[in-house]
Every structure is written in structure tokens, then in C-alpha cells.
Write a structure and sequence with these properties.
Helix content: 55-70%
Low-confidence stretches: none
Oligomer: single chain
Distance between the termini: 32 Å
Keywords: Signal
Structural class: mainly alpha
Mean pLDDT: 77
Protein name: Cysteine-rich protein
Number of helices: 3
Number of domains: 1
Number of strands: 0
């Protein structure tokens, strides 16, 4: 009996050592964006409507810096964290 390409791919995927991937990264980014929206709301602004320029309020710049740090953490850790 010959394995189809799909069956062979499924077997290889089951045996591979993949520990994380796009789903973990996407969940992490969703969390970062949710916190950023809350941060903007706490500062009295709406996320996505303020131009991030030097003239932006300090609270908005702090929210942007936190979002950048969170996103960077997702890229370095979230892509390699174990997923069930």
C-alpha cells in the first residue's frame, strides 16, 4: 500500500519537533494589542486615531513604546514557546 502525499505530510508533522508557531505568535500579538487599546483608552484616546509624532501626548508615546516592547517579546519568545 502506498502512502499518499497528504498522509506522509501528516505523519511527518506529527513526528516533528515543532514547539510553537503562528498560532502562539498571533495569540501573543492579540494580547499586546488588547493592552494597547486599554492603554489608549485610559489616556483618553482611541487606538489607531493618533498620529505617533513627536507632538503626540506623552501618554500615547508611552502606550506605543509598551506595544513595541510587547510585540518584540512576542517575536522573540512567542514564536519559540511550547504550544499544546
Amino acid at each position: 500500500m502506498r502512502f499518499s502525499k497528504l498522509a506522509a505530510a501528516a505523519v511527518l508533522a506529527a513526528l516533528s519537533g515543532v514547539e510553537a508557531g503562528p498560532i502562539a505568535y498571533g495569540l501573543c500579538q492579540t494580547g499586546c494589542n488588547t493592552v494597547a487599546v486599554a492603554c489608549y483608552a485610559a489616556a483618553g484616546f482611541t487606538f489607531g486615531t493618533v498620529i505617533a509624532a513627536p507632538a503626540a501626548p506623552a501618554a500615547v508615546l508611552a502606550c506605543n513604546a509598551a506595544l513595541g516592547a510587547c510585540s518584540a517579546t512576542c517575536a522573540t519568545i512567542g514564536l519559540f514557546a511550547p504550544t499544546p
